């Protein structure tokens, strides 16, 4: 098996595209999944990532009018969320607690930035 194939298998990516993005059932295991779905976000895809130092993680993307990515480094002790209006916007808000994500999403909803 190729190095890339082994990496995708390690993260359980189903039907990956040429960038390795695809569906991973593990997206349901992150602590923000339920909250994101409560606010109308839909799971889009998962992306396996290898950092410069060799650490690996899987990045789960949820979409509404904004994008929210959720990830945890393999040796990390907490999940991180990262939100933006679009991947190219340059505006990002990140955090690692559910109360902060709820506050952020509530404010977006009040301002009609998400449906």
Descriptive terms for the model:
3 helices, alpha+beta, globular, 115 residues
Chain-wise SSE layout:
Blueprint: H1 3-10, H2 33-38, E1 42-50, E2 56-63, E3 67-73, E4 80-84, E5 93-95, H3 98-110
Antiparallel strand pairs: 1-2, 2-3, 3-4, 4-5
Strand residues, percent: 25-35%
Order of helices and strands: HHEEEEEH
Spatial strand order of the main sheet: 1-2-3-4-5
Structural class: alpha+beta
Distance between the termini: 43 Å
Shape: globular
Secondary structure tally, helices: 3
The residue ranges in which pLDDT falls below 50 over 5 or more consecutive positions are none
Explain what you see.
- The mean pLDDT is 85.
- The chain has a five-stranded antiparallel beta sheet, with helices on one face.
- 23% of the residues lie in helices and 28% in strands.
- The chain has three helices and five strands.
- It has 115 residues and is of the alpha+beta class.
Quick structural summary:
This protein is an alpha+beta fold.
